[in-house]
Write a structure and sequence with these properties.
The complex is a heterodimer. By secondary structure, chain A is mainly alpha-helical. Chain A has ten helices and no strands. The longest helix of chain A is centred in the last third of the chain and has 22 residues. Chain A is elongated, with a radius of gyration of 18 Å. Chain A starts with 8 loop residues before the first helix and ends with a helix. The chains are: A mainly alpha, B alpha+beta. At the A-B interface, helix 2, helix 3, helix 4, helix 7 and helix 8 of A face helix 2, helix 3 and helix 4 of B.
């Protein structure tokens, strides 16, 4: 028997808009991890990151009829999340919790024996990242932490590659200065 | 326009950012980037995410017929037209534009047009950033406070816009979000109390010359 053919994103969007709400879970499964990885870099805690992703998916569902390119619904959802994350970074409530707290609380992915030293480094670099503007931080995270190409980021953020490179450059300069201060 | 401005317009990399990766201290920078990557929080989405998203979605009310129709009207859809159709449409538009007595384009981006033979209206652009909204309408004394002018957010970026024909004069208005929540325009130039403990935004619409 032939394996079941997986529905494309465009088919899923069409089915959801036709009333099959349950089909939306396919998009949550496909893009949950990617969105969550970005939210972790922008939020103050892992709980807040998950909450941002949940809000992005629900908002995406509510406005799915406005998605102009259903075959690129993943990028569209990412853009919704990115906007929510930037708003989150700007919010006064979030400012009360340093992102360094999150970095220090997360387990090391490297050698467990060097956790203490790693925690110190993580706290320092993420404190510096916390001081960037939301736009600089987003650009830097997408480029240097998530390792995406300029073209890919520019498409998602609706910026020219030149503007994006400038934003990343300014973020790097700011980080360089901040890390020298902390050194 | 100098060379840099020209390059920028053409989408070239600005000189400030050009070659940043090739800077003399690039090794130092590479080490810093590696540190950032190592320090980055990672982790898969929590297993309960799908369940919570779907539970919240299931709890949402079904969209009304009106909402479906409006959504259909504002949602982008491919339109195929033949060159002949385009030519006919262009000819019709040209005839309309050359028709005597039509409205003129006003200053400051406000399009002036005639409503009837004597009443003039100005098309005012309303903008509201409401990322979580599913519908945004504007209501004011120019609509007898009926939220009859719907704003749209066709690209899904959370910024809702719409142009509303308004007669010259001073008008009060508010936004209605999701047919439920009234919100004052945070970017209005002036405000006034509405007598019920809230503030209306105030808009001054000038007459065209």
């Amino acid at each position: 028997m032939a394996p079941p053919v997986e529905r494309t994103d465009a088919q899923v969007v069409r089915d959801v808009l036709a009333g099959d709400r349950d089909a939306y879970r396919l998009l949550v499964r496909r893009y949950g991890d990617v969105l969550h990885a970005h939210a972790l870099c922008m939020a103050s805690s892992s709980d807040e990151a998950a909450d941002l992703v949940q809000r992005a998916f629900v908002q995406g569902f509510k406005k799915l009829h406005t998605c102009r390119e259903p075959d690129r619904v993943g990028a569209w959802l990412f853009r919704i999340l990115a906007n929510l994350c930037k708003d989150h970074v700007r919010s006064p409530r979030r400012r009360d919790v340093s992102l360094a707290t999150l970095a220090g609380a997360l387990p090391s992915r490297e050698d467990p024996e060097s956790d203490a030293a790693d925690a110190e480094i993580r706290s320092r670099v993420w404190s510096a990242l916390d001081a960037l503007t939301p736009e600089q931080r987003e650009a830097f995270v997408l480029k240097h932490v998530e390792g995406r190409s300029y073209e890919e980021i520019a498409a998602v953020m609706d910026l020219s590659v030149a503007s994006l490179k400038m934003r990343v450059h300014r973020a790097r300069e700011a980080l360089r200065g901040l890390l020298e201060e902390y050194a | 326009m100098n060379r840099d401005e020209h390059d920028r317009m053409k989408g070239a990399t600005p000189p400030e950012a050009r070659g940043a990766e090739d800077a003399p201290d690039s090794h130092e920078w590479d080490r810093m980037i590696a540190t950032f990557r190592q320090a980055a929080p990672r982790g898969s989405a929590p297993p309960w995410l799908e369940q919570r998203v779907m539970a919240e979605i299931e709890a949402l009310p079904e969209r009304s017929t009106t909402q479906r129709i409006l959504a259909w009207l504002v949602s982008p859809a491919p339109v195929r037209v033949s060159p002949l159709t385009v030519g006919l449409a262009a000819a019709a538009l040209a005839a309309l534009l050359l028709w005597p007595g039509r409205g003129a384009v006003g200053p400051n981006g406000g399009d002036m047009a005639t409503a009837g033979s004597t009443e003039q209206v100005v098309y005012v652009q309303f903008v509201l950033e409401a990322p979580l909204a599913t519908s945004v309408a504007v209501a004011g004394d120019f609509s007898d406070w009926e939220p009859s002018f719907l704003l749209t957010d066709s690209d899904g970026d959370g910024v809702w816009t719409g142009r509303v024909p308004i007669r010259p004069g001073v008008h009060s208005y508010m936004f209605l979000i999701d047919e439920l929540e009234w919100q004052t325009d945070p970017n209005a130039e002036r405000y006034q109390d509405d007598g019920f403990g809230n503030r209306n935004a105030v808009l001054a619409v000038g007459a065209s010359s």
